[in-house]
User: Fold dTDP-glucose 4,6-dehydratase from Streptomyces abyssalis.
Amino acid sequence: MRVLVTGAAGFIGSNYVRTLLQGGYPGYEDARVTVLDKLSYAGRRDNLPASHPRLEFVQGDICDLPLVTEVADGHDAVLHFAAESHVDRSVDSAAEFIRTNVGGTQTLLDACVERGVERVVHVSTDEVYGSIAQGSWTEEWPLAPNSPYAASKAASDLVARSYWRTHGVDLSITRCSNNYGPHQHPEKLIPLFVTNLLRGEQVPLYGDGRNVREWLHVDDHCRAIQLVLTKGQAGETYNVGGGNELTNVDITRRILELCGADWSMVHRVADRKGHDLRYALDDSKIRDQLGYEPLVPFEQGLADTVAWYRDTPSWWQHVTQERAVHAGTALYQEN
Ligand code: NAD
Ligand code: DAU
Assistant:
């Protein structure tokens, strides 16, 4: 079994590959893994083992058709994580999101068709559905993305679906809620707030902080992806939810407590443009059909995540320094 994993120098893809190489997915203990990653600002080679007998790392762009076609050759399955993933950056500048998330997905799938890859999982997001005030989205819900990031993911989902329908690619799509865990870039809420507090700095809370997100530990997301890879049906989409709905004020309070800080460390800043109020997934399909259930209790997962950032400053200190260097073009503004 040979598996090609795109974007696995980033947060979620690297978690998937580390778990796979550690023998964490039954039946895949001998699988050989090729990682294709551009090493954008969000990708780090040191998120993966420096060397491993079953790991090959290729630095490259998923938009580069000759390269991707060559790399895809001989693989049984492709797990497609590579993307521009941060909403605020897409508000700032959308072009790279369309290029990588839409064009890159199309290019990767062309390579899969050309090389006869047998199975593809396209990793997507709940943000494609837009924002929901009450209730929760099933997979049948219309797509109504609000940010350029979400729009680029929705477009890539439709491209992926079309390669199943048109070219007969055995392909499934996952749509997951907000992930948290170690190795997440400190541009995202949880690692940003934790690393700011660890450095004694305030945390920037957007708007009134009443936006709701549904949090899932990255280990649970990756287990769900593996379930979809092995048991999912071609042409089907699977929501992957966590069930831990929290307002941003609530999660901020929990992070403050875990970091031994209080509300005086919160700095209210202007709201994100087009800020989605609430995400909530109905994930009964993957639970009922594939036997998925999240295993990491939220309180434990969050405490472990804070502990990981506290114990691993070498991983994030240079990233936050880079952010300080670019402070003139900060992605958030003060009120
Ligand atoms: P990330 O930003 O941490 O990692 C993205 C990786 O993709 C990086 O290693 C980067 O170098 C690589 N990459 C970017 N552009 C590339 C290109 N053109 N060619 C090759 N590699 C490229 O993202 P993440 O949080 O790990 O998200 C992974 C996937 O999961 C994305 O598709 C995202 O939309 C989806 N997702 C994320 C979340 C979340 O909460 N983080 C939730 C649901 C779905
Ligand atoms: O829902 C899945 C999505 O979750 C993924 O598809 C995205 O890749 C991932 O980045 C994430 O998107 P969000 O926009 O929900 O995550 P983010 O961590 O950027 O923000 C979470 C919430 O916190 C959101 O309501 C905005 C708010 N926020 C964020 C930052 C970075 C703040 O209040 N202050 C901040 O500084």
